[in-house]
Fold this protein.
Amino acid sequence: MDSEHFEARMRGQEYFHSLRLLPGAWCIVRVDGRSFSRLSETHFKKPFDAQFQDCMIAAARALLEEMQGLYAYVQSDEISVLFRPEWNLFDRCVEKIVSISAGLASATFSLAAQKAVHFDSRIWMGVDTESIVDYFRWRQSDANRNALQNWCYWTLRQEGMDSHRATQLLEGQSATTKKDLLAVRGIDVEALPDWQVHGVGLAWEVYTKTGFNPKRNEKVQTTRRRIQVIASLPRQEAYDSLLLHLVAAGELGPNCA
Ligand SMILES: Nc1nc2c(ncn2[C@@H]2O[C@H](COP(=O)(O)OP(=O)(O)OP(=O)(O)O)[C@@H](O)[C@H]2O)c(=O)[nH]1
Ligand SMILES: [Mg+2]
């Protein structure tokens, strides 16, 4: 067999490497920490840890910057990053997008936490802006549910209940019952930090930088971009408006943050 034929046969068996994102589709990459329940049990404060959150934000920032994303949403151990329909990084190669996003999130979180961790990665595609709003609303509802569940679970555990019993007791309970369980213990869900209950957004903002031109001996103003962390995301229709603005403009307007 000649070497050219051999090369082509071997490459052909990299079967999934030719798979591309649909042309013209919006793409969201979601990375999720692997076995973070076990990791966070031993390494982080329960139910939520500000240091854990800082590591997640560092990973989200790296994904936005390195992969040229438009918006990132962080909740629990997951990060969703939105990319434009015309985004062409890695020639839209699915294998590259999932492996590099997972690698980047893993490396950044590990360095920030000083502990080796890894993330998986998956791709969501949508053809219109309404479905993008639906997607982020979906992840935010998951954040709401997770926060309530985790607060209840860890409150019971900290009272001495074992893992099996706490899980069993919360199984199938309504949000109202869970809120009541916390309320009688003096925990008001409405007063919990926004980042725990609603997640955090990261988006590009435009700002004006004032420099100095020594040749002309005068001040000069230039426009730059930087990532802003939106620690307190708007809710419901106001969140929809923010997302639609980002989708249309690609960055936060002066009145949006
Ligand atoms: N201690 C602590 N745990 C957190 C924090 N944020 C998220 N977690 C935990 O991270 C886990 C995320 O859930 P999952 O992604 O479903 O669980 P997982 O163990 O990572 O499982 P896989 O993703 O399937 O590998 C939950 O157990 C959360 O309690 C935090 O700030 N502190
Ligand atoms: Mg996970």
In short: The longest strand covers residues 200-213. The chain has one domain: 20-137+194-257. Strands lie at 26-33, 71-75, 78-83, 119-126, 200-213, 218-230.
